[in-house]
Every structure is written in C-alpha cells, then in structure tokens.
Write a structure and sequence with these properties.
Strand content: 25-35%
Strand order of the largest sheet: 1-2-3
Mean pLDDT: 79
Distance between the termini: 12 Å
Number of strands: 5
Shape: elongated
Radius of gyration: 13 Å
Number of domains: 1
Low-confidence stretches: none
Number of helices: 1
Length: about 60
C-alpha cells in the first residue's frame, strides 16, 4: 500500500512497504534548507511525524 500526503506547502512524501518495514522517501527543495546542504530541524521533525502516521495507517490496512 502506498500513502501519499500533500500539505499546503506542496511537500510530498510517500510511505510504502518494503518487506515487513515501511519506508518514506522525501527529497527536500531549496526552500527547505537553513544553509546550503542542510535542512532545518522543524522539517525533520515533521517528516518523522508524517512517516509515523503513514506507517500506522498502512499497518492497519495490512492486518
């Protein structure tokens, strides 16, 4: 199962199954950087939160 989330800023992440684990992919845009090459901490916290929700939702459907 794939779950895609899109919020007002246009961030797009995908959470999907890879065997028994869920994986989320995200590629930051330049607007997500604090300084070149580094994303800001709030974005990282949001991605962890999004992944957790996506993984929980996918697990519920898999049962």
């Amino acid at each position: 199962m794939r779950q895609q989330h899109s919020d007002d800023s246009g961030d797009r992440i995908k959470t999907y199954w890879d065997g028994l684990e869920t994986v989320t992919r995200f590629t930051p845009d330049p607007c997500h950087t604090a300084i070149p090459g580094f994303t800001y901490g709030g974005l990282l916290a949001s991605l962890i939160d999004y992944h957790g929700i996506g993984a929980d939702s996918a697990a519920m459907y898999r049962q």
